[in-house]
Design a protein that fits this description.
This protein starts with 5 loop residues before the first helix and ends with a strand. The longest helix is centred in the first third of the chain and has 18 residues, at 6-23. It has 171 residues and is an alpha+beta fold. Helices cover 46% and strands 18% of the residues. A two-stranded antiparallel ribbon has the order 1-2.
Amino acid sequence: MSIYHDDYQATAPLWRKVRDCIQGEDRVKQERERYLPMLTSQRESGDIYAMESYGNYLLRASFYGAASRTQEGLIGAVMRRAPNIEGIPDAQLQELQDAAGPNYEGIDALAMQQLSEIVSVGRYGLLVERGDDATLPPYLCMFKAEDIVYWNCSDYGGRNLPTTVAIRQTY
């Protein structure tokens, strides 16, 4: 059994392409042959002139950064209004406004992070953990799509809900 979900394995290469496109021209050129393959004549000859020709090809290549501009525009359109959060007592909500995430970012910054992930790759994980002390605000931990490597869902009252989630953590 693989530790990676079939959907993860099928979609991860697409996520990488999207992220590279959002990072822009420098990232696309840095990946060299992944996006800008050598011509057959350049590859087959392998001499110094072919490598120089490929280097010049990379210099001349241009990439229009529509993906990042689109992402920024969509996030800006959504964030014109402040997030509306319900179901949390006012005192805890004020704490979340100032320090919601593990790096003490505010709830607005957290919402922008979530939107950025959803607009770009269409998937994002947010773990909301609540301790035994109900007077403390919940702990929020964010996970990018690439970090959620396996999941299993079951039907509960007509809703397909996750029952198992495996998260890859890097330090």
